[in-house]
Amino acid sequence: xxGGRVLMLAHHFPPAGGSGSNRALAMARYLxxxxxxxxxxxxxxxxxxxxxxxLLREVPSDLTVIRTRSWEAQPTPRPLGEVARSAGxxxxxxxxxxxxxxxxxxxxxxxxxPFALDAARRxxxxxxxxSSGPFTSHVIGLALKxxxxxxxxxxxxxxxxxxxxxxxxxxxxxxxxxxxxxEAAAIRAAxxxxxxTERMASAFRAQYPDLDAEHFSVVPNGFDPLQFxxxxxxxxxxxxxxxxxxxxxxxxxxxxxxxxxxxxxxRDPEFxxxxxxxxxxxxxxxxxxxxxxxxxxxxxxxxxQANHAEAIAAMRSADALLLVAxxxxxxxxxxxxxxxxxxxxxxxxxxxAPPESSTADVLDETGGGWVADAADVESIVCALRRAYAxxxxxxxxxxxxxxxxxxxxxxxxxxxxxxxxxxxxxV
Length: 427
What we know:
The protein is built from 18 helices and 13 strands.
């Protein structure tokens, strides 16, 4: 069988902003070219984080989108990093802390489950497809699999159990055990598990050696070319602007970058005259503290949250683009979604990331920029100096085109074909 109906469990979908919403939107837009007609189940707009009306206008008019109620808390402006840092503090005592963890298991979006599952069960579909975060999407997918026996593809844009242990090491022991078992149940019940990097796939294959290697597939993150088509000329400013687009929170530190910039400013008066660091997006308390302590007040501009179109325009106007990768253990296997948007824009990239990481793999493959070790000030000084002096990189257009989401949707459609075909043969 080739093609059919795919039920997309997409908590993050326009008008929600962010990389997860953009990936779901692109897959919904391009999967019909692979023969798959999407049916999207997502919460109502009231639960959309970082709402972006511009993304909502990009949703195809003929796409079936089912918006449900939810019992989860509605989004607040509180940065993710502050949530990560405060988790488990137990301000109302140990019992209150345990109750709070129970209410947020496996995450704060569990209140969507009954409504999404009810809506999903009413649809006619050939394969279900859930993507995380949030992990609640996979709990829904697992329940739907057990109820309907239909093929199910689960997608992890980040890790799950081990990733959470690195970010939230103070989770109570009972939650640790339950989450480990829940991940294993979902991984084993799914007909296919999609990861976004080869390093992630290798890690999961090692974690589940009894499963066939083919149980884990890779469909990378990427960019939607329709979002980057513009006939306007970018506005250039005097000096040299390094732009970071996106949130800065737990695991993504600016401290070493700021120390490197300070060192290069002291060494090179011309760089010091031209250098401006522009931060577009939300910052947690730690990032703001790093900026205050960095001694570069005259060189740092904090803009705050912007919608997707505004962010792309800012990227095109910058001289170089800054990527600050997550340095928590295990995060080196993932790639920040903004890296691919940076590649689509075409400006040189300065990536602060582990040299042995998926981020470094992508930049080495595409020639899109330079990687500097997040723990090495001099490595970052060197990358800044090269970006300032060269103003361009030896990009490989063919390698970059491999991350076009039109191509990636075809690959995802091929996976749907395989799992549906395999299910048909087992009947």
